[in-house]
Amino acid sequence: MTSKRADVLVDADWAQEHLEDANVVFVEVDEDVSAYDGGHIAGAVKLDWKSELQDAVIRDFVSKEDFESLLSAKGIGNDDTVVLYGGNNNWFAAYAYWYFKVYGHADVRLLDGGRKKWELDGRELSTDAVSRDATTYTAQEQDTSIRAFRDEALASIDTLNLVDVRSPDEFSGKLLAPAHLPQEQSQRGGHIPSAINVPWSKAANDDGTFKSDDELRTLYADAGLDDGRDTIAYCRIGERSSHTWFVLRELLGHENVKNYDGSWTEYGSLVGVPIAKGA
Amino acid sequence: MCGAPPQGRSLEGVDLARETVIQGHVLRAGNPVPSAYIRLLDDNGEFTAEVQSSADGYFRFFAAPGTWTLRALSPGGGGERTLSADRGVNEAELQLS
Q1: What is the CATH number of the domain that holds A152?
Q2: Which structural domain range is residue A191 located in?
Q3: Can you list the alpha helix ranges (DSSP code H) found in A9-53?
């Protein structure tokens, strides 16, 4: 397992130096989709994780063809280096990173610390409109070696590493959603039996940047992650677990790591499946 | 489905018989602090959620009854306080250094 950090993560200084590069496209993805309009990194395009990355009818990704149209319209080419960043400690930027990888984009990177680090550094944000020339983007078939579905999550109990990355209170069943959202939810509280709880936040520093490889290796080893087993990460809807998927697969180089984007809103609503409560 | 609600005063549509709302202003020397990062930590000090204060320094969390810590991070300096919350609205001002 060798770190791929330099290939997948850029810091704010790197970003600042490459703002004008023709083949580097900065893409902002936020949970709060109005954040971009209040100011964004100069030249960055906006991607709406909800209206643009989710099918409008069924709960799933947009189709390969729709993803191709989307990226073409955004002016993102197959050979471009895509640098994703966003608010909320890069949750949704990490989700988009994973999503771009599912559809086979070659060179995707995350901006370490995202909007938060950029703002805390006092770096400039722009409100200028951004337009890029359209491209003809070609996506790959979905790479399901990094995407888990509900049957795999169920079958992984006591067999694979299941990493629940939600907060301890969500893991135990005390809360049903991260605490910036109303708690009224239809699904049951708790976690998938045999899952270990390693909150995504333990992989990040206060400023939203990722901890060092050594710190991260120690974090998961101490939590009981078995290096000899494949891993499925999940949270509530798959965005925080994308953050952990990024750490395990892209930073630490674990080979078989899947993100279960159905996550707790799906699993916790299934009829008859086992649920564990408490810490 | 998961969009953070705009940080504001309206609690329309929120079931206050079920929700434990923790909300208030972030202030520095009496003035509201916009765009501060506010963290909610549980009674073991574990990260539970984070929001950014609004243009007029407002923040809001949906927690559960119990003891919570609020910790703020902003370019000018931080602040922290602990509070005990019950169901309904819990107002909590957070003073930054």
Answers
A1: 3.40.250.10
A2: 147-267
A3: 12-17
Residue B28 domain-assigned (yes or no): no
| Distance to chain A for B91, nearest Cα, Å | 15
ipTM of the complex: 0.79
Q: How far is A33 from chain B (nearest CA, A)?
A: 8
Residue from A102, A175, A235, A237 carrying the catalytic annotation = A235
Count of domains in chain B?
A: 1
Give CA–CA dist B34/A80, Å, rounded: 35
**Is B12 within 8 Å of chain A by CB?**
no
A10 and A114 inside one domain:
yes
- Looking at the fold, whether A97 and A20 belong to one and the same domain comes out as yes
Q: Is B35 helix (H, G, I), strand (E, B) or coil?
A: coil
Q: Is residue A276 part of a domain?
A: no
The pLDDT-based confidence of A185 (bands split at 50, 70, 90) is: confident
Q: What is the pLDDT of residues A93-131, one digit of tens each?
A: 999 999 999 999 999 999 999 999 999 899 999 999 999
pTM over 0.90: yes
Across the interface, whether the CB atoms of B19 and A184 are under 8 A apart is answered: yes
The CATH number linked to B84 is: 2.60.40.1220
Q: In what order do the strands lie in the sheet with A196-197?
A: A147-148, A257-260, A231-234, A161-164, A196-197
What pLDDT is recorded for position A264? 95
**Domains held by chain A: number:** 2
From the list B3, B37, B42, the residue facing A169 with the nearest CB is B42
In a domain, A202, yes or no: yes
CA B49/CA B38 separation, integer angstroms:
8
Ranges of beta strands (E only) in chain A are 9-10, 24-29, 45-47, 81-85, 108-111, 147-148, 161-164, 196-197, 231-234, 257-260
What is the residue range of B55's domain?
35-88
Buried b (16+ CB within 10 A) or exposed e, A155-177: ebeeebbbbbbbbbbbbbbbbbb
Instruction: Spell out the alpha helix ranges (H) of A18-90.
Output: 64-74
What tokens does A208 get?
Answer: 């939203």
